[in-house]
Amino acid sequence: MFVVGGDGDGFSIGGGHLPHAARRNPDITYMIIDNGIYGLTKGQVSPTSPMGMVSGTTPFGLEDPPLDPLPMLLSYGVSFVARGFSSDVKQVSKLVQAAVAHPGFSIVHLVSPCPTFNQVITFDFMKERVSPISEDHDPTDIAAAFRLALNQERFYTGVFYRNPNLPTMEQKLEHQRKLTMDRQPRSLEQLFAQF
After folding, report:
1. Structural domain boundaries of the chain?
2. Which residues contact 80 (CB under 8 A, 6 or more apart)?
3. What angle do CA 9, 41, 10 make, to 5 degrees?
4. How many other CB atoms sit within 10 Å of the CB of residue 82?
5. CB 121 within 8 Å of CB 52
6. How much is the pTM?
7. Are 161 and 138 in contact (CB under 8 A)?
8. Looking at the domain that runs over 2-165, which CATH code has it been given?
9. Nearest-CA neighbor of 82 among 124, 137, 40?
10. What is the pLDDT of residue 118?
11. Tens digits of residue pLDDT in 59-97
12. pLDDT value of position 180
């Protein structure tokens, strides 16, 4: 299954669902398109808008710090975490393919500046900060993934973390189904014997 949403869906209204989806590990790929603003509803600040941002809802500047999606997703235990920048279409395509191939809950956080309402996080602003994750990064190393995600100097893109060995929700449900079915009577006589 493939799901697409925005930073408001993923980190505000639907933010409470993410940790529970992560712990269940369904075989779903969720692409979160983050433009740091509610662009479809005329530019209100979102959970990832930077402090100080002036908008229709914050005429004197946003006073709340933004959520930092990557450390959040890693701390929830999402079994595949990647980030891309919308200007790098080739990399984003590879990230989405890798996420879909991953067995379990995969999230691709896609930063895609909104040129209409977000004049802080612009394409030029991002291009100066974006760096692909080094080839020698081990995506099975959660500590290394956190170090990259928490780096304030660069905005890393690529696969931060993957753990293909966690059982998926579908595998767990199948296990439960088998346990349940094994306890069911196999004949009419066995069924009557229970009562």
Report:
1. 2-165
2. 98, 99, 102, 104, 105, 106, 107, 159, 161, 162, 163, 164
3. 10
4. 29
5. no
6. 0.88
7. no
8. 3.40.50.970
9. 137
10. 66
11. 999 999 999 999 999 999 999 999 999 989 999 999 999
12. 80
